[in-house]
């Protein structure tokens, strides 16, 4: 590619040792920083301090407080361990001296071994999915196909997704792309199935997020993103799921807990 991809451009840090800084782009419609963006950038900063033979294996993070666009973000990387097969990094992302995200990430040098995954039936067949333009940050970077009944302003999993333009053939950049994409659907899925999603339902935000990177990822081809509500209590909803390619190969596993402060007068049962 003659010019950097959109995700590569979002990883263009100013670096001073293991401290990385970037000014987030000005938004089109929202002020609150998209969690998937700051997560992807945190993984990119961590990966920049790791030997090139090790690629992302997993990450676990907390969204500590909301961030803002058009403001500098500092990513401070701590080198926890560098082993022969694994490397571990901690990342603290902050704005104006206040931490907005804490991440721990592991990197692994690929090695031979068994390759297995359980066989599962698709939650949404590609031919049954319909094109949609969800009102999400950087939504114009993706093609999305959802269930015909998804009338929300978001994209509610299960859905199919791909980047509209190719992304560099770089395992770290592609893992950052996956990280960005993985935050597009968990919050609405974390609602109990008995409560219908609606814009005035209440306040919602991501609390924490985990990804396990299983197999190579090609962002420009269609992938099926499936999430399931696993629990909801104490105003917190847990969702778990998978990102699979067109052949049903498991590319990554995802889990997220979201905060849902639901206005009791707005609860509508789907039963």
Task: Briefly say what this structure is.
The protein is mainly beta and 271 residues long. The protein has helices spanning 6-9, 35-47, 171-182, 186-189, and strands at residues 14-16, 19-23, 55-63, 72-82, 86-95, 98-108, 130-132, 142-146, 159-163, 202-213, 223-233, 236-245, 250-262. Helix 2 runs antiparallel to helix 3 (171-182).
Give the helix/strand layout.
Elements: H1 6-9, E1 14-16, E2 19-23, H2 35-47, E3 55-63, E4 72-82, E5 86-95, E6 98-108, E7 130-132, E8 142-146, E9 159-163, H3 171-182, H4 186-189, E10 202-213, E11 223-233, E12 236-245, E13 250-262
Antiparallel strand pairs: 1-2, 2-4, 3-6, 3-10, 4-5, 5-6, 7-8, 8-9, 9-11, 10-13, 11-12, 12-13
Report on the architecture of this protein.
The chain has 271 residues and is mainly beta. Helix content is 12%, strand content 40%. It is built from 4 helices and 13 strands. The chain has a 13-stranded antiparallel sheet. Helix 2 (35-47) packs antiparallel against helix 3. The longest helix has 13 residues, at 35-47. The chain is globular. Residues 266-271 have low confidence and may be disordered.
């Amino acid at each position: 590619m003659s010019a950097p991809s959109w995700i590569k451009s979002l990883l263009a840090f100013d670096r001073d040792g293991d401290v990385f800084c970037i000014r987030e782009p000005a938004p089109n419609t929202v002020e609150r920083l998209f969690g998937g963006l700051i997560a992807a950038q945190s993984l990119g900063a961590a990966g920049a301090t790791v030997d090139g033979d090790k690629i992302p294996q997993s990450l676990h993070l907390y969204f500590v407080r909301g961030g803002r666009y058009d403001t500098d973000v500092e990513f401070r990387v701590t080198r926890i361990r560098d082993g022969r097969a694994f490397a571990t990094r901690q990342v603290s992302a902050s704005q104006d001296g206040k931490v907005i995200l804490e991440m721990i990430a592991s990197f692994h040098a690929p090695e031979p071994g068994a390759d297995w995954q359980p066989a599962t039936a698709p939650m949404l067949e590609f031919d049954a999915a319909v094109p949609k333009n969800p009102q999400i940050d950087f939504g114009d970077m993706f093609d999305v196909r959802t269930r015909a009944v998804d009338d929300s302003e978001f994209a509610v999993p299960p859905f199919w997704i791909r980047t509209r333009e190719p992304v560099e053939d770089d395992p770290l950049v592609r893992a950052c792309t996956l990280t960005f994409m993985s935050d597009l659907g968990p919050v609405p899925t974390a609602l109990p199935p008995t409560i219908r999603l609606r814009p005035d339902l209440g306040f919602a935000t991501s609390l924490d997020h985990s990804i396990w990177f299983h197999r190579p990822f090609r962002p420009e081809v269609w992938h099926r993103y499936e999430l399931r509500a696993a629990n909801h209590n104490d105003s917190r909803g847990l969702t778990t799921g998978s990102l699979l390619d067109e052949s049903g190969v498991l590319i990554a596993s995802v889990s997220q807990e979201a905060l849902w402060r639901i206005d009791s007068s707005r609860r509508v049962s789907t039963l």
